[in-house]
Amino acid sequence: MDYPFIDSVGVGEGAHHLENYLHSPYVICVRAPSLSTAELLRTLGAAHLRAAPRGERGGRSLYVLRDDEWVVAADDWWYCLWRDPDKPGRLRALAEHGELVAFAMGDCCESYDLWRFYDGELVRRRVVESPHYNDRVVTVDEGEWASYEDEALYTLDASLIRRRVLSAHGVELARMRIEHLNGPSPPR
Q: Which of 51, 72, 120, 155 has the greatest count of CB atoms below 10 A from its CB?
């Protein structure tokens, strides 16, 4: 089931139509416009996914968005990429291609997870858990805060934090071209 009105972002031409809304809990943004979709998928452990018509459902799903500066992988609501035990290594490998910003948020709680890499090195990590679904407990807060980070930012809803963080890095999801990929969930 889709929830197209919760933190949805209109994407691409005709973004005002429901089928053009991106609704994702986890985005990985790499400033590497020449990074191919095939290489992105290989690095994320999702090389089995194939292009699919928008709206087609079944199995694992992933959206790849791109513009002249950024390539973005947008996870499905099964959190396949976020829950990947190899996530730190995969993010580090993608960061070898360029600056990386990754942001994940919970579906029904106040949790979120921010990663920033620059020159292949992790420069910022913030993890907020929400054990009671309406609270926030900072469990990781490492690295230098960026110029756009302040206490007021972190009082906002996770979806607004994500929008502001991505926007501060020049990632404008609404202006990107989108590709839908899906396939069976890989064995774990």
A: 72
Token couple for 138: 């900072």
- Contact between 137 and 129 (Cβ < 8 Å): yes
Domain spans, the chain = 9-181
Tokens of 102: 């990754």
Convert 27-64 to b/e letters by CB count within 10 Å (16 or more is b). Answer: bbbbbbeebebebbbebbebeebeebeeeeeebbbbbb
The Cα–Cα gap between 19 and 72 comes to 18
| pLDDT tens column, 17-61 | 344 567 788 999 999 999 999 999 999 998 888 877 655 666 677
Specify the 3-state DSSP secondary structure of 101.
strand
Assigned token pair, 13: 């031409």
Angle between the N-to-C axes of helices 87-95 and 37-44, in degrees from 0 to 180, rounded to the nearest 10: 150
